[in-house]
Design goal:
By secondary structure, the protein is an alpha+beta fold. It has four domains: 4-112, no CATH class; 132-179, SH3 type barrels (Roll), CATH 2.30.30; 187-267, Alpha-Beta Plaits (2-Layer Sandwich); 289-453, Sandwich (Jelly Rolls). 47% of the residues lie in helices and 20% in strands. It has 14 helices and 16 strands. The strands form four sheets. Strands 4-3-2-1-5 form a five-stranded antiparallel β-sheet. A four-stranded antiparallel β-sheet has the order 9-16-11-14. A four-stranded antiparallel β-sheet has the order 10-15-12-13, with no helix packed on it. A hairpin with a 3-residue loop joins strand 2 and strand 3 (154-159). It is elongated, with a radius of gyration of 38 Å. The chain starts with a helix and ends in a 9-residue tail after the last helix.
Amino acid sequence: MVNRHIRGKLLISAVLFGVYAAAAATLAFVRLSPELVQQLHTWLPLVLTFAVINGAVALAINPWRVDRLPDRLPNIVQDAIIIVLFAIAATLILQEKVLATTAVGAVVVGFALQDTLGNLIAGLAIQVEKPFRVGHWVSIAGKDGLVGEITWRATKIRTKSGNVVVVPNSVLARDTITNYSEPTAETRIEVEVGASYDTPPNEVKAAILDAIAGEPLISLARPPEVLLVDFAASAITYRVRVWITDFAADERVRDRVRSCVYYAFRRRRIAIPYPIQVEIQQDAATPPARDATDLEAVLRDVEIFAPLTDTQRAELLHATDRSLYAAGEVIVRQGDPGSSMFVVLSGEATVTIASPPREVARFLRGGFFGEISLLTGEPRTATVTASTDCDVLEITADAFRRFVVLTEPTVVDLISTAVAKRRAELEQHRAAGAAATASVEPPRTFVARVRRFLRLATTAIV
């Protein structure tokens, strides 16, 4: 494979050699007027000189077998070298004719080509100083985009909307240039959010940091920051600072930050005030009767709560927290501490384990997870992620103990036995995926451990 740039330059030289040979043959075998003969004798040496210089520079500077241009000598610089060498050679060849017309020609050309020459000189300066290169993300003349090409006259920028903006090099020489790809590919972006005056700033900051933790588009090399920047008319304004390694994704990162913050604030009951001052009178947050009936129906279908009475289920519902998770958010993470379980009300959740990494289950409406942490306080045994926007009920161990265990202690054994069975099935599934032998805890031992965690007296299990 031969460098395409060399092939192009050699093709130009070959064409000029052909023109020179044809003209020389014409002079030798065709009778021409004296004026035309004189003109050919004047210009043919220049054609031959340019062909030789063009081919020699292309062969001397560019790698023969690698299809690329040298970093320090891009195309525009090579063309400048060819022009300078040709100008020197032409001056030596023409001598008196050039000297006689230089002054007048310089004035005429200078006025006619002042914009073009300005772009040319600016283009050369860009290649020498290298404030940016092809493939860099930059902001030029108020336009953000990817540098696609640097030519004699202009620099071409491809915007995120797919348009190509052509910026004259003379404009670049006067304008401020922001390079998002230098000195490193990491770039900090900022997103401002507002939160209610009713919530302490440290609580808001913790909620924001927790919401964006683990976002794949955010760089882990530098930790995110949350700063309180203003006490506005209707809200406290916070500035979220995160680092990204791909500037092309900055709009998607801003979207993810705002979306995650919204869902996190909603779960934590942190209000996002309206941007105008209004008075809103709201009744106490009591769920509609139909909604409560639907929730009771979902809880009734949960296998481990089948032994409960309708009254116990209704009382338990009053102590639950209802939370909405955005698609892609982690609901629980494997290895994290926990003492609650979740019931899916709507949407879909995916269960994955880390060793070996794989998906083990999916939950739709009525699906539940985290029951082992609820009954034993063990760390989470798997990671559960919202596949779509997911509405869930969270039942804590404290609520379960107050409204179920203390009112009907015998129910614990029935529930624990059902959970032990489900846990044994999960362990066997995990062991099968890992090609290992499962060590399944006997139901009797598991139930005894549950009673200890819930601070109940150990009883004989029939």
